[in-house]
């Protein structure tokens, strides 16, 4: 009798482990960033200004690229931009390798390139007056910042502070915090999104909010910015493909 009970217990344990293993194998691996293509519509005070895209691509050996392009027309104003960051990604940490920025349209055209060299030299062209000569671990650029935020949200973080070299070649600090969850409407439908706010220390009349969708691997789904009481833009996702 004891032997029979023992055998039943062992059988139940093995079946339980087998069932758990099958369930684990069926669960999607959503604990890391994944390459994607996302298309966005941009609005300002209800008027559609144009479209933009963000594309992340795997380059192999834990290296990736993320590229942003946008084309905006509003009244007599036009703005075309292209940004590209190449970075290394291991265990939730983004380490930039290079960044390029081009802007054309109304006003002055601008170009900038940044190299994050292995010997910690920072090469910014054209060099800004306050461009650092060296970079430190944890520093980002304007595009790799997007990826690090996404990775940190996947990891469950709710407060963030980042140092980055801006598209002006200067060192800046960004502070962000999760302020809740909110249902948002997009070109892909309605989603329960994580709402993140940028924390401004002194600029009282500025506000910037971003919404990230867990169902889309925490990809940015909407970004809204206000300056001195006037809406600057409202960026809303309309297409998404995971590679």
Q: What would you note in describing this structure?
A:
The protein has 243 residues and is mainly beta. Helices cover 15% and strands 57% of the residues. The protein contains 2 helices and 14 strands. It has helices at residues 2-26, 144-154; strands spanning 36-44, 47-60, 63-74, 77-90, 93-105, 110-116, 122-125, 140-141, 159-165, 171-186, 189-198, 206-213, 219-227, 230-242. Strands 7-6-5-4-3-2-1-14-13-12-11-10-9-8 form a 14-stranded mixed beta sheet. A hairpin with a 2-residue loop joins strand 13 and strand 14. The radius of gyration is 22 Å and the shape is globular. It starts with a helix and ends with a strand.
Put the structure in a nutshell.
The chain is mainly beta.
Beta percentage is over 45%
User: Which strand order do you get reading across the main beta sheet?
Assistant: 7-6-5-4-3-2-1-14-13-12-11-10-9-8
Determine the number of helices (DSSP H or I, runs of at least 4 residues). Answer: 2
Uncertain ranges: 1-29
User: Helix amount, in percent?
Assistant: 10-25%
């Amino acid at each position: 009798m004891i032997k029979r009970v023992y055998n039943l217990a062992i059988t139940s344990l093995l079946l339980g482990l087998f069932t758990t293993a099958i369930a684990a194998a069926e669960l999607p691996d959503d604990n890391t960033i994944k390459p994607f293509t996302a298309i966005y519509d941009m609005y300002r005070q209800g008027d559609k200004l144009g479209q933009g895209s963000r594309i992340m691509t795997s380059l192999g050996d834990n290296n990736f690229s993320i590229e942003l392009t946008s084309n905006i027309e509003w009244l007599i104003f036009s703005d075309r931009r292209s940004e590209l960051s190449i970075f290394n990604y291991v265990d939730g940490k983004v380490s930039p390798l290079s960044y390029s920025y081009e802007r054309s349209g109304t006003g002055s055209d601008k170009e900038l390139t940044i190299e994050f060299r292995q010997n910690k030299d920072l090469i910014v062209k054209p060099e800004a007056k306050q461009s650092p000569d060296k970079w430190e671990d944890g520093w980002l650029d304007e595009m790799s910042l997007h990826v690090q935020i996404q990775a940190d949200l996947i990891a469950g973080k709710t407060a963030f502070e980042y140092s980055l070299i801006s598209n002006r070649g200067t060192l800046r600090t960004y502070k962000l915090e999760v302020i809740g969850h909110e249902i948002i409407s997009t070109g892909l439908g309605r989603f329960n999104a994580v709402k993140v706010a940028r924390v401004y220390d002194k600029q009282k009349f500025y506000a910037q909010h971003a919404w990230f969708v867990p169902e889309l691997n925490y990809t940015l789904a909407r970004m809204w910015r206000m300056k001195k009481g006037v809406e600057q833009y409202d960026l809303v996702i309309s297409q998404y493909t995971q590679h």
